[in-house]
Amino acid sequence: MIAEVIINSSVKTLNRTFDYEIPENLDVHIGTRVFVPFSRKKELEEGIVVGIKETSEFKVKEIAGLQEEQINEDYIELAKWMSHRYFCNISDCLKLMLPPGRTSKNILNRVKEKRVNLVTLAKDEDEILQDIESGIIKSEKQKRVLEFLINNGNATISDIELFTDASSSIVKTLIKNNYLEQNSTQIERNPFLNRKIVKTVDLELTDEQKIAYNNIKEDGKYLLYGITGSGKTEIYLRLIGKMLKQNKSSIMLVPEISLTPQTVDRFISRFGEKHIAVLHSKLSIGERYDEWNKIKSGEAKIIIGARSAIFSPAVNLGLIIIDEEHDESYQSEMTPRYDAREVAEYISEKKHIPLILGSATPDMNTFYKAKEGDYQLLTLSKRANNSKLPTVEIVDLREELANGNKSMISKKLYEEIRKNIDNKKQTILYLNRRGFSTFVMCRDCGYTVKCKRCNITLTYHKYTHKLKCHYCGYEQDEVTECPECKSKNIRYFGSGTQKLEEEINKLFPEATTIRMDIDTVSKKNSHEQILSKFRDENIDILIGTQMVVKGHHFPNVTLVGVIAADGSLNIGDFRANEKTFQILTQVAGRAGREKDEGRVIIQTYNPDNYAIEFSKSQDYDLLYDTEIDIRKQLKYPPFCDIILIDMSAKNLKELKDVSKKVHAYLKDRVINERFGVLLYSPVPSPIDKIKDRYRMRIIIKCKYDDRINNLLNDCMQEFYKMKTYTSRMAIELNPNNML
Ligand code: ADP
Ligand code: ZN
Ligand code: ZN
What we know:
single chain; GIY-YIG endonuclease; 6 domains; 7-stranded parallel sheet; 6-stranded mixed sheet; 32 strands; globular; binds adenosine-5'-diphosphate; binds zinc ion
């Protein structure tokens, strides 16, 4: 017999099958992972069998051996579908379904080991950072190792070698110089260890919840549309419980950022930790491997995870839930650029199991589908525990300015914060810009300081006195003199969370504050640490970016302030209004979740914008009706699809040539084959350079279907045939990020 094998490689020309003879002594079927000889290479290549047939037209070699873990045949089909749907290699998709640590055999053997030598820091972090800054530690590799451990806590020497490219002798030198230490430790890889969780039972469902729950059948797609606190999670718990009784697994996806212990606890307290597996990006390879096994063995029947958990090897899958389905994190921005909601739809249709999408502010496209009958709409219009929705007030910052208030805090917000401090209630302030000042400009010649590698302004970070690029991480010292005209008249404009915190500390010196943004949560776990500190120590004010918005439940928070609602309005995206409304509704949902009524103050320069106006009443239906008309007129999704062909190269001339060729190819076919689409000419992307790569794009507006999918796949193949040197191309359908 002959096996059709996909070689585990992202090289585009290898996106096809190769035939191999199956030796008689090997048990090989679809989904078996194999080692095969390939071209003239000495080492064997890894591959996956995706088909079996009687004979081959070629002279073929034999499969050399088998790898341990196999892939379910269903998933091979899924990978093939994804490869076509997302314009990428099958092996790119299969990677998502392989056990963690799959990249090399060594890693796989190592992660099974539970007793390891762990290297940790032997000195205080600050002390080490100081030694790096003052030049006591000069070697780049030593710096890299230390920074790696500051960020990851502990690691084995081989992990360190793998991730930092520093040899073990570097680690040993650092141990000798008392920066690091090494201990043999039994690693207990149980993420829930030492947590005391009180057992809970099913709540008596409200009438609305009952109707929704009873409407969910064995099969089908549902949109559970319920305001924040309406009891969506309680319904998920019920459904998962029902599956458990039938010995079936459930996958529940949540946005990465809301995957906190608090979220998971609610499930553990209902079902016990034995049945639960949690998958997210902060887990170590070993932890991920353990969770994966717990799922694969069928022990864990409740899988809670971020986007990629949709590919976990659930046994006897009976239910998929996607909470906060409008969240952008469900769309991958790396190859394969899949949308977890679409993958979930595919799986639920193939397996005939229910798919539940839940949200208080559904994606406009999902809501449209529900109205069209593709999804069954289930509505929860009241809060389950009878707490009231917060009152929302909008403050016009233009008036504030006219009245001479130049600070970031309006008079109204100031008074409300004051009240909260006096009453020992907590406040959350939301500002979606981190750092201190958002751009730095010379007042004499107008020069702005931009990243050397990306065409984007650098943000000033006051505590480190650095200018940072929020795209690539590039960092440089602050400037005091204009590099263009030598003027010393340098001004810092705009404001981020650091500046906000400073202002709050000046306005309310007696109040305690804590800040949460990428800069403060870069260490493992500290996202959760900040939140527990805020809750447990009753800190007066939490200041943060997007991270503070998602799904947290703080009983004592009664005031939420949005410092600048306009931030997401000017993002050059047709979804700007939808996104603004979603964020405002979500952040408002943090206030007054228990008996005390919540207040929300939204500051804005655009009080007349309808997304901002409707967030006052948190009326999604009104937003939907208004927005859908505009979409229809302007031919945006869901009435029309947008295809973004994203091209980049290190050399601008090369990029221009390539994009012209791609455009010419498409134009030819569109005209000759009468596609009836709107094909635009190549233009520079809104951010036209990132990490030293120039960027251009071609946009197509169309009604997406199989024919267009084929055209785009052909176009991708055409691109690979071109002599392109440094160019890359990616195709996305209705991407979340239009920049
Ligand atoms: P959502 O997921 O829609 O935000 P939750 O399920 O978290 O809503 O419910 C919000 C609050 O209401 C929680 O404190 C929850 O315990 C409570 N709750 C939910 N359903 C019920 C119910 N049927 N009876 C009483 N309280 C409920
Ligand atoms: Zn200047
Ligand atoms: Zn940059």
